[in-house]
Amino acid sequence: MFQTYDDVADPTLGPGRAEKLRTELLTRGLDGFIIPRADEHQGEYVPPHAERLRWLTGFSGSAGLAIVLQDKAAIFIDGRYTLQVRYQVDIDVFEPQSLMGMPPAQWVEENLLAGAKLAYDPWLHTVESVKRLKQAVDKAGGELVAVEDNIVDAIWEDQPTKPKAPVEPHDLIYAGTPAAEKLAAITSELQSSDADAAIVTMPDSIAWLFNIRGGDVAHSPLPLSFAIVYEEGHAELFVHEDKISAETRAHLGNVVTLLPPEDLGPTLDKLGTWGREVRIDPATCSDWIATRLAKAGATLKQGTDLCELPKARKNDTEVAGTRAAHIRDGQALSRFLAWLDRETPSGQVTEISAAKQLESFRQETGALKEVSFDTISGAGPNGAIVHYRVTTDTDRALGQGELYLVDSGAQYLDGTTDVTRTIAIGTPTQEMKDRFTRVLKGHIGLAAARFPKGTSGAQLDALARMALWQAGLDFDHGTGHGVGSYLSVHEGPQRISKAGHVPLDPGMIVSNEPGYYKTDAFGIRIENLLVVTPPAPIEGGERDMMGFETVTLAPIDLSLVEASLLTEDEKAWLNTYHADVRAKVSPALSVEENTWLEEATRSI
After folding, report:
1. Which 8-state DSSP code applies to residue 365?
2. Are 226 and 261 in contact (CB under 8 A)?
3. How many whole angstroms separate alpha carbon 486 and alpha carbon 495?
4. pLDDT band at 44 (very low <50, low <70, confident <90, very high)
5. ∠ at Cα 218 (406, 236), nearest 5°?
6. Which residues, 6+ apart, have CB-to-CB distance to 197 below 8 Å?
7. Cα separation of 404 and 426, whole Å?
8. Tens digit of pLDDT for each residue in 501-559?
9. What angle do CA 329, 334, 338 make, to 5 degrees?
10. Do the two domains 11-155 and 168-308 of this chain adopt the same fold?
């Protein structure tokens, strides 16, 4: 199994650890410390030694931040974790705050005492975030202090060691474009920006650029490392030597010079000494790197990560790979859903046993490298917790008359998957059917959209919400996120959300996952992955329009569909989708499983 179900959250530990942190702050003459859920690379997934926020507070979500002052403390989370934070964290010690409603900078401005010293680890904060924090601290009349060593590390006695997983080549049959060709394209962009060098800090960008993969964090094949690309056309990769095999060294060849991580600082100093203009992405580059460059004399030029857009625009090989991965994944999912239908009447299926069974079906494909995230397996009220993580303490049976929400994904060499299905266990209520069908209408509305070049996710987001809005309902998360190619399951810059302002381009992969959540009752989400298609004519139209190709293949529970709420076009979309599922999934299924699939994908 690629995931465990141990309860990692213990809110009873938070008060003692907060006081221990305050004592350490006093010995250093400091009044507060900021603890983000981040490592030096600012990625969504962090290695165990960097889970400082979880260790201090108990919160295990993928995004968040805490601030501890001598007289108070707060934890900042987004809408996905509003319920989760309250059972994982002692909220009498760490007051929950909304990242949107009360951003950390605003809280600091309102709560930091004049003259107080607020400390931060410059490796764990971006240039942008430090700028906001400094403005807030200045307004409060305090001082923002960068510390050389992380203060949580000083009190975390059994802190895990840093990972050193092997770095492996990612074969050209999956990558599609040689690393040398990618580097040449990035170098050309760098030259156009009039910079001498660019710092690459995001491991997924480095993995994409050099066609390598790693295993330093859970669920994403990332090699934690840093890189510098020079306008002359060469690059340096800062990575532990013992992570590089002879095969990987040969794969990298003359594309990049390998250097140990401890050489990064001196190399940044040289860039400053030479008076170089260095490009950094202020949204992802750590304050430590930017400050070191500036102090050494470098001129900083701000711009987005040069790898971000080309990485997001999947080439033909990557698109073909994701199609193949989704057929394989769809076969495992259909086998799982057939099993679920057969086994749940016994009352013996639980959230954990279901998640384990799904992973087993994926394992049986013979191609599974990892799950792409911890499976969200939520029955009844647990399904209403958007990013619910089942543990041995919260595990519950899938009860009759309840909804079961399962959000899962897989990592294959040819593609990354992410899919959510909501299943009725027994007979659903009319309310459940109404809410499910409204979510389905939004899902179809987005999947069937046609739009001109230059359209962003923010312009499409309302399509997935309209049917819910008409009933006075909504959901508090984005409609869709970008997805990598055997990389991070959450990838930017593309997304379908109110804040998704980057234009969608052909080859980008995004999720389509509207939902509805009734606290303490049930959760509903329907998620497929979409590939943005090139502009094409529409009969009778005047402009070519882009659209989406749905690549996820798994039945949508028809027992939850209130057909009277669907238009004829929506029914046609659902019937066509299910016909596609049957055609592509059925060859790998048994006779019994195909009998189930025929019924599960019948026309309505």
Report:
1. T
2. yes
3. 18
4. confident
5. 135
6. 190, 228, 229, 230, 231, 271, 276, 277, 278, 279
7. 11
8. 999 999 999 999 999 999 999 999 999 999 999 999 999 999 999 999 999 999 999 99
9. 150
10. yes
Could you give the percent of the chain with pLDDT greater than 90?
93
| pLDDT value at residue 463 | 98
Contact 390, 382 (CB under 8 A): yes
d(CA 181, CA 171): 14
In Å, the largest CA–CA distance within the chain is 74
CATH number of 168-308: 3.40.350.10
Confidence of residue 411 (pLDDT cuts 50, 70, 90): very high
| Two structure tokens written together for 100 | 């949107």
**What are the extents of the domains in the chain?**
11-155, 168-308, 313-597
Contact 286, 150 (CB under 8 A): no
CATH number of 313-597: 3.90.230.10
Tokens at 429, concatenated: 């209520």
Alpha helix stretches (DSSP H) within 344-417 = 351-363
> Can you tell me the distance from the alpha carbon of 374 to that of 328, in angstroms, rounded to the nearest whole number?
19
pLDDT at 83: 79
**Is-contact 111 118, C-beta < 8 A?**
no
Are 526 and 473 a contacting pair, CB within 8 Å?
A: no
The token duo for 575 is 């019937």
Whether the full predicted model's pTM is greater than 0.90, yes or no, is: yes
Rg (CA), the chain: 25
How far does CA 105 lie from the centroid of its chain? 24
